[in-house]
Every structure is written in C-alpha cells, then in structure tokens.
Write a structure and sequence with these properties.
Blueprint (H helix, E strand, L loop, with lengths): L1 E8 L14 H5 L7 H12 L7 E8 L8 H16 L5 E6 L6 H9 L2 E9 L3 H6 L6 H13 L3 E6 L8 H13 L4 E4 L4 E2 L3 H7 L8 H17 L3 E5 L5 H5 L3 E3 L6 H14 L9 E6 L4 H5 L4 H7 L4 E6 L8 E6 L1
Parallel strand pairs: 1-2, 2-3, 3-4, 4-5, 5-6, 6-8, 10-11
Antiparallel strand pairs: 7-9, 10-12
Helix pairs in contact: 7-9, 9-11, 11-13
C-alpha cells in the first residue's frame, strides 16, 4: 500500500525559539495560517486525487511545533482532522514538534485524537552543535522524548540536519547511530541550507559559517544512508523540498540544495560500490542489478558509467529482478 501525506502547514506556530537556520515562512512558502475552511478544503481537494483503498493517507501538521500550541488549539486542529479519520477517509494523523515539547500529558491527548505518528526535529545529537544552532534543548531531551513516544505506541520519525555550525562527519555519524538506537521508524535528512533572513545568513555573510558543498553533502549522506537502511529505518526524505519561492526566487543564499539531491546520493552509494572494480579483470564488463537500482547504478547523469568507461573498453548494464537491493553480478568479456 502506498503512503500519502496531506500537509497542513502551521509555519512557526507553537515555537518560542529562534534557531539559526529557521524561517518556516520561507520554507513552507505560506505566510498566513490557513483558516478552518481552507484546511478542510485542502484536505478534500487532496482526497479527490487519492485512491484511499490503495493508499495509507495521513493528515500531517508540519512547519511548526504542534505540541507547543495551546492545548485547546491543538485539540481544535486535531478535531478538524479527526472528522476525516472517523469517516475512514484517512488512516491517521501525524505532526511535527520539538523534543522538549513532549510529555506524558501531551501524548495522552494526541492518542485520544487519533495521532499515530510523531516527527521530532532532532537536527543533531551533539550538545555543542545544538547550542550553536540555538535549538534550546539537549541531546538528553531527545532521548527522553523518544522513549516516551515509543512507550506510548506511536510511530516515530526523527529529522536530522548535517552541516550545522560546529558539526563534523564524526558528529553526524554519531547522530545517525543514536537515531537508530532510539528506535526511529523513519528519518528525514536535511543538509543545512542558508536561508535569507535567518541568523545563519548573518554568520555566513560574516564568514563565521561555511555550509557543506553539494558534493560534500552528497558524499556525507551516501555514508549514512546505508546505516539507516541496514537498521531498517525508512528514509522519508533526502534534502529539503521547499516552496517554489525558495528555488525560483532569491531566498536560498547558500548550501547544498539540488532538486535531484536524493538521486545524487543513491548514485554516489553505487559509485562507492563500483569504484572497487579494477581494470585488470577484463576489458569489457556487464553489470547486472535489480531493475529498481538500474538508474542509480548507471549514476546521476551517467557518472558511474563514465567512471567505469575510464577503466574498461565497454560497460553494459542489465537487470535481474531476482537480485536483492544493491547486489550485482559482474560479467567479464576479455
């Protein structure tokens, strides 16, 4: 069964903190908060494009810290979504929030209103990185919140942001390991971008912060994605999916943004695999992979194929649906 979120953005609502990277208005592309009628109309419009019997549909409150809203406002929003849950037009409700806005009372309310998935903005599990990012919480707050969420029976998605001020490869790797250890069902990986009007832009303009290059971010993610996959953690997103205004306007100041970022990461993983092939094994080779892996194996803009052509006279790719994940068969013609 396919999964589909109907996103309801509540930009900046519920959050009293001013993280250096954050301007949810620009990220969501939506300045005012939608009124009730607009929310209901948006849900209905999305449902008309979805086959509910074939799709796991969830109404998703994104863009703010939902559990930081006044309790009555939380109940109001959840009540709007609950109408569709009761009629079985959707199968669940999900929301995003902060680790330090989770407690047993909050989780009890969410459970009563049919929420089944909670996404936490973790960003990093290194306290010095969290401090420099202005997050206002510690790694221990994340551990506590994750334990409460898991014990209450919710599905848990954790979000991380490689490349924040003070971050390193080693710290990102440790964040990855801790996200896995906390029992995340899924993860979103958002390499840090410098958005106009944020504190990070000021640090960048003062040369006090240098974002990851696109190549660095792709390579970094190609190292941590397999760790999540091996642990059974679903990767929901690689790279920010911004509003049209972000990448058609001038809101993006710097950072590793690319509309095909995910494809570039999966291509780079195959690059690391195929880079081990040595030209001495034969002049002509055939690489057979699972059909779903074919484009990634060939590489984004055929980069992997071109790398192999520097070593071999001929390189052909074929498919075999009996192969698993990134297994491949190497054929050699001398």
């Amino acid at each position: 069964m396919k999964h589909a979120n109907i996103p309801i953005f509540i930009p900046m609502q519920g959050c009293l903190f001013d993280c250096v990277f954050c301007d949810q208005h620009k990220i969501t592309g939506q300045e005012p908060v939608m009124c009730d009628d607009e929310i209901l109309q948006k849900i209905e419009a999305h449902l008309r494009t979805i086959a509910p019997e074939k799709t796991d549909v969830q109404i998703a409150f994104f863009g703010g810290s939902f559990t930081g809203l006044p309790l009555e406002q939380q109940k109001h929003y959840l009540g709007l979504a609950g109408t569709f849950l009761k009629s079985k037009k959707v199968k669940g409700i999900r929301l995003s929030t902060r680790p330090d806005y989770i407690n047993e009372k909050v989780l009890t309310v969410l459970k009563q209103y049919g929420v089944n998935t909670i996404e936490l903005g973790v960003q990093s599990m290194d306290d010095s990185v969290l401090l420099q990012a202005g997050r206002g919480h510690t790694a221990e707050d994340v551990h506590r919140a994750a334990a409460l969420i898991r014990s209450a029976g919710f599905s848990m998605v954790l979000q991380m942001m490689p490349g924040l001020p003070g971050d390193t490869f080693e710290k990102t790797l440790e964040t990855t390991k801790q996200i896995i250890a906390m029992g995340a069902d899924a993860v979103r990986i958002y390499p840090t971008l410098v958005i106009k009007g944020t504190k990070l832009e000021m640090l960048y303009s003062q040369k006090k912060y240098k974002p990851l290059s696109l190549d660095e971010a792709v390579d970094l993610c190609s190292m941590i994605v397999p760790l999540f996959e091996d642990a059974g953690v679903t990767i929901l997103r690689l790279g920010l999916h911004p509003s049209e205004g972000l990448f058609h306007g001038n809101e993006l100041v710097a950072g590793p943004f690319h509309t095909a970022f995910g494809a570039m990461v999966y291509s780079r993983i195959w690059y690391h695999i195929l880079n081990g092939l040595q030209s001495g094994i034969g002049n002509k080779i055939t690489v057979t992979v699972h059909p779903k892996e074919l484009n990634h194996a060939i590489g984004y803009r055929k980069t992997n194929r071109m790398m192999l052509l520097d070593r071999f006279e001929s390189v052909q790719f074929r498919t075999d649906n009996t192969l698993l994940s990134r297994e491949f068969i190497l054929g050699i013609n001398r």
